[in-house]
Amino acid sequence: MTARLRDLIGNFLVVEKIGPAWLASRITHEVATLEGTEHMERGDYLDRIGLLRTSSWELVAGMWTAIRTLFSAVQLLLVLLLLGSVSPWLLCLFALAAVPLWCDSRARRLHHQAQTATAEKFRLQRRLFELSTDVAASKEIRISGATERLLEHQNHAWNVMVRQRFRARLHAFLWRLVGWAAFTAGFTATLAFVVMHTTSGRSVGDVVMTVTLAASLQQTVQAAVSQLTGTMSAGVVIEPYLWLRSYAETDRARANGTLPPPPALRDGIEFKGVCHTYPGTLHPALQDVSVTLPAGSVVAVVGEYGSGKSTLIKLLGKFYQPDSGSILVDGTDLAALHTDDWRARTSAAYQDFGRYPQTTFAEAVGLGDLQHISNSARIADAVRQADADGIVDSLPNGLDTSLGRAFGGVDLSEGQWQKTALARASMRQAPLLFVLDEPTASLDAPSEHTIFERYMKRARSLARSTGAITVIVSHRFSTVAGSDLILVLDKGTLVEHGTHQDLLNADGRYAELYRIQTAAYTLD
Ligand SMILES: Nc1ncnc2c1ncn2[C@@H]1O[C@H](COP(=O)(O)OP(=O)(O)OP(=O)(O)O)[C@@H](O)[C@H]1O
């Protein structure tokens, strides 16, 4: 009864309820609060985090088994004391436990190697599964008839993973079998030898006690070894967990500055020979970029796909550090500024904006400035800025409408989600940096026009109050023509910069791209 109660409490409370919930929140905390985003974009890091997430319960189970191992150790000690009192030779039986332990360590290593080697395949098949069940992607998949092909990919990834893991499990099983067989054979032989040599002349009672205790020893050793190996299995998960913790610590120690950002920008933000290459890639995403974004200006960043526009934005948000060169904010290195404080003075609408489920429309906007998440006047103002009043009017409960159909709320169209993200980015009233990364990619032409006019006005008003710099990333040259400064990126290099007129006069890359776009629109 005690054992059952222990298992009930242990398994339910420790292994299922408290443990994983605690661990999952620790993992989420570490993953989501790091300054950088490298760990969310690198395959080998994602493998570790994936392994950790899927097997986090093993870590907790390992802790629970560790407690049981402790009990078994006490039990073992008692049996050994009793056996030692009959004959010290009988203590040799205990040494045999080393054999299955050693074999088990080999088995675990095989298991761990297979888990790590197949982590990418596991991630791939899960991603393909998510893709097939995602409503946005599934339309395209159905039209193109790619379901079967995706399934094939998914099955292939799954089969490769399962085969490799099964092979490792089989080898691990054989190692364990050999270990226990050797233990049992050695145990029986030693016991027979010891009983024959140490009990001659003793009473039948002594012999019975020795055999009974030895059998009990075998059971206790077996339980202790199994529990010990169970505890050690948690090491498979402990490794990525410890990696995550040490990665988080290094990241925090490296990246977090201490200085507060200035109350208002006086000179601006200067890029000084900034280079950045993503880890694991050969070509720099940004190369020797040197330019000053004057305080109070509207800066447009243009360039073809993959030219480095988003990378420049990521560096401004401190999601990555430049490999060399520096970014100076009114003469102070951005790296030296306290990251949270700097971000608190930044507003941004990214092209890959978030869609927060189970929030009301008001909350989805208010999240842009947590201190004012319940401030309806401010939310209404942000909604107006983003030209999203029409969306609110069309929702059944206005600002209080729950969003996300998958969670019982109302779903929005792509453009409506984008306007929500824009409204969120308009919540902060005194940013030093205002980033609009492809802010109108999902919007129709009239909305785009209205929004740009409003954001230009907002940029000018922010410029007057805090000297804020508004950075707009866009593929549409017509929308950036009114900017004070246009940066033209090509394969990570800043090839030109100046005003629209300067760049047209220079008749370089910008003028060429501008002419191509204008001709395309004229044709339309
Ligand atoms: N997380 C990453 N890991 C490795 N390489 C990356 C990563 N993000 C971007 N890159 C590479 O860096 C280069 C610049 O990418 P970036 O996203 O900055 O370009 P972009 O101009 O913003 O492109 P787009 O217009 O398509 O958004 C590209 O070659 C891209 O493949």
Automatic annotation (TrEMBL):
Transmembrane segments: 86-103, 173-196
Pfam families for the chain: ABC_tran
Keyword Thylakoid: no
Gene3D superfamilies in UniProt: ABC transporter type 1, transmembrane domain, P-loop containing nucleotide triphosphate hydrolases
Location relative to the cell: Cell membrane
UniProt xrefs under InterPro entries: AAA+_ATPase, ABC1_TM_sf, ABC_transporter-like_ATP-bd, P-loop_NTPase, Type_1_exporter
Membrane topology: Multi-pass membrane protein
Domain of life the protein comes from: Bacteria
Domain ABC transporter as annotated: residue spans: 269-516
SUPFAM superfamilies linked: ABC transporter transmembrane region, P-loop containing nucleoside triphosphate hydrolases
Keyword line: ATP-binding, Membrane, Nucleotide-binding, Transmembrane, Transmembrane helix
PROSITE patterns for this protein: ABC_TRANSPORTER_2
MF terms (GO), sorted A to Z: ATP binding
Keyword Methyltransferase: no
UniProt xrefs under PANTHER family: ATP-BINDING CASSETTE SUB-FAMILY B (PTHR24221), HAEMOLYSIN SECRETION ATP-BINDING PROTEIN (PTHR24221:SF646)
Protein known as: ATP-binding cassette subfamily B protein
Organism of origin: Kribbella aluminosa
